Amino acid sequence: ALAFLARPRAARVPLKGRHVLITGGSSGIGLAMATAAAREGARVSILARNLARLEEARAAIQRESGRGDVGVHAADVRDADAVARALREAGPVDVLVCNHGVFVPQELERQDMEEIKWMVDINLMGTFHLIKAALPAMKARTRETRLPGSIAIMSSQAGQVGVYGYTAYSASKFALRGLGEALQHEVIMDNIHVSLIFPPDTETPGFEEEQKRRPELTNIIAASSGGMKANDVAKKALDGIKSGKFIVPCNFDGAMLAIATAGLSPQSSPVMAFLEVIGAGLMRFVALCFQWNWFSTIESYYAKNKKRE
Ligand SMILES: NC(=O)C1=CN([C@@H]2O[C@H](COP(=O)(O)OP(=O)(O)OC[C@H]3O[C@@H](n4cnc5c(N)ncnc54)[C@H](OP(=O)(O)O)[C@@H]3O)[C@@H](O)[C@H]2O)C=CC1
Ligand SMILES: CCCCCCCCCCCCCCCC(=O)[C@@H](N)CO
Question: What residue ranges carry the coiled-coil annotation (predicted)?
Answer without folding.
Answer: none
